[in-house]
Each structure stands twice: as C-alpha cells, then as structure tokens.
Amino acid sequence: xxxxxxxxxxxxxxxxxxxxxxxxxxxxxxxxxxxxxxxxxxxxxxxxxxxxxxxxxxxxxxxxxxxxxxxxxxxxxxxxxxxxxxxxxxxxxxxxxxxxxxxxxxxxxxxxxxxxxxxxxxxxxxxxxxxxxxxxxxxxxxxxxxxxxxxxxxxxxxxxxxxxxxxxxxxxxxxxxxxxxxxxxxxxxxxxxxxxxxxxxxxxxxxxxxxxxxxxxxxxxxxxxxxxxxxxxxxxxxxxxxxxxxxxxxxxxxxxxxxxxxxxxxxxxxxxxxxxxxxxxxxxxxxxxxxxxxxxxxxxxxxxxxxxxxxxxxxxxxxxxxxxxxxxxxxxxxxxxxxxxxxxxxxxxxxxxxxxxxxxxxxxxxxxxxxxxxxxxxx
Length: 379
Ligand SMILES: *Cc1c(COP(=O)(O)O)cnc(C)c1O
Hints:
This protein has helices spanning 12-23, 31-44, 55-65, 82-90, 112-115, 135-145, 196-205, 214-219, 238-249, 251-269, 304-313, 329-335, 343-351, 363-378, and strands at residues 48-52, 73-76, 94-97, 120-124, 148-152, 160-161, 164-165, 172-176, 189-193, 275-277, 291-295, 352-355. By secondary structure, the protein is of the alpha/beta class. Strands 1-9-8-5-4-2-3 form a 7-stranded mixed β-sheet, sandwiched between helices. Helix 1 (12-23) runs antiparallel to helix 9, helix 3 runs parallel beside helix 4 and helix 3 (55-65) crosses helix 7 (196-205). The protein binds pyridoxal-5'-phosphate (PLP). Residues 54-56, 80-81, 83-84, 126, 152, 154-155, 176, 178, 189 line the site of pyridoxal-5'-phosphate (PLP).
C-alpha cells in the first residue's frame, strides 16, 4: 500500500472553469480573482479580501501596508514554516520569537506581553495545524500596546474559536493556497482586512504600487496610470482564481471529511502508549489542516526519526511540521539562536510527525495508517 501524504481535491468543475479562463482573453488579475475575493470575504464575514501569489507575499505586504520595516520588531512563533518569520525579514524588520503552548503548539499568549519592547510594532500569530490561537488575549495585548495583529492563517481558513472566525480580531489575516493547503491552486494566497484604506493600499502594493490594474485598463477607457508608492509583483491571476472558486464553495464539505478522519485518528491513537496527540481547545472548530502525533523520547527503542522512516517504509507519506525556525542555519547564523532558546517549540519539533489527512483519503487507507503507526511504536 502506498498512501500519499497529500492529494489535492481539484475536480472536473474546477478544471472546466480554468479551461474557460484559458479560452478567454484575460489571464491575469481580473473578474475571476474578484469572484474568489468576494467569496472568501463572505465566507469569513469580513469586508475585503485581496488575492495574491502566496501567503508569504500576503504577510510581507501586510507588514509594508502598516509601515513596519527596519528597526521594528514583530513578535511571532518559532514553531511554523519559515515563511512566517521570513516575511518579517523581507520587510526589513526583526522577528522576535516567543515559545509555544505545549498542548496545542500555538504561540503562548502569556509570553507575548513580556516580549513587548519600544520597538515592537506587530504580533504575527500562526493558527498552527488549523487550530486558532487565543485571539481575544492577543487582541487585548495589541490594543494595550498599540500593535498590529497579522494572522498567519495558512492552515486555518475554516477555524472558529470563542465564536470568532479567523481574521475577525486581527487587523489582517493571510491565507495560503499552496499545493498542500486545504484549498489549493498550486501556488496562491490572500489577505483579508476590515479597513477600506488598507484594502486600497494592498491592492496597489500587490501590483508595483500602481493605481490602476490591467483589468481597469482593459475594461474601462484608457487612462494613464501613476505609481504613488513602491509595491511588489504579487497579484493573483485569473487562472489561479479559477482553480479556487469551486473549492471555496465546497470548503465546508471538504472540512467535514477531514474532520471525520481527524476524529478517527484521535479515537484510534489517543490510547496508544508512547505517543501523544495535539490537544484541541474545547468549543472551537479546528480547521483540521494537519493531524500530528508526538513521539516523546524513545518508544519501542526508537526515536521520532526512526518512527518517521519506518512509516515511510510501510508506504505512509509523512511530514514534520515543524523543526523550529530559530534553529534553521540562517537564523542561528544571523541571530545567534541556539538549542534551549525556545524549549517547548524544540520539544514539539523533535517529536512531531504529521500523518496523511485530506478528503480523498479513504477509510481503509486511514485504517492502514493507524495500523502502521501502532506497529511502529510497539515493535
Ligand atoms: C504554507 C505556509 C506559509 C506559506 O504559504 P505560501 O503560500 O507557500 O507562501 C506560511 N505560513 C504557514 C504556517 C504555512 O504553513
């Protein structure tokens, strides 16, 4: 049996819509991107969504839109994909890591306030694996110190906590449509905001900072454009959007299947000795992006990496989300980080294994994964 770590959910409807775009005259940012943006804004109950080329681009643009740059500090988590902290470096600012909660792996809100300095301008929480951070507390701290909150919601379009959706309490939220995310166009991203001025600024910033898009030039009478600010080349195109429009309509259906698989994994694996599961926050809706187990120390004489290898040998696709950012070579070298700086993130990073979790995963495949895990940690 070979069980892929991930398989996307692009179907005939999505392909047909994309082919339609390819037969049309307009390939770049246009009406299909607009359709995706209004669909995403409606799904999240926010006024504005802006399509970009990646979540990394989304995070970078948000920092620029709020004027964050050299000399500024942004508080974030070390337990994420490097894109989170890299976006802060792209903006010329400095990422300031604080450690995570042992149960969920999310940024520990209690550690944020002590890390605030005169240079702190923003907090960038990551809703890890699809579970929202404590946004109420993060918003409280942000208001107290006049900080911007930019949510990295790459794992978490569908999440809800304390009755609040992603992007509601943050000033901005950033989403990814990368190849293995909950909905995907291979590469792609989006930003949601509440503020009309920021929406307009971000639309300029995603396209060089020019004040008219190609669609404006195409659909309206020609008018000269100007470039009031310096932006980047991060605009989503109609081809990417066409792949996403239908997936967004099915997003809750897709979530339901992942949720069922998540629960099946939880039921089967929580009693297994030697592994721990990521805790879930009661009363919240987990977006179920990733299902992770933790192998603490040695089980059956094996450490995490051996279990990881054994699962692969059984044909089970696996991943590690994540070895902490501060211990990556570049961050060690330029910021002097070392082992022991963020012990909980390091512990999780050394123990975690992600298992296959996607709507096309069949029940018998999930059962095979469960058996493979049990075998790996008992024999
Ligand atoms: C995937 C991911 C990103 C980056 O998304 P891209 O669209 O590939 O730029 C950022 N943060 C987290 C937590 C991610 O998982």
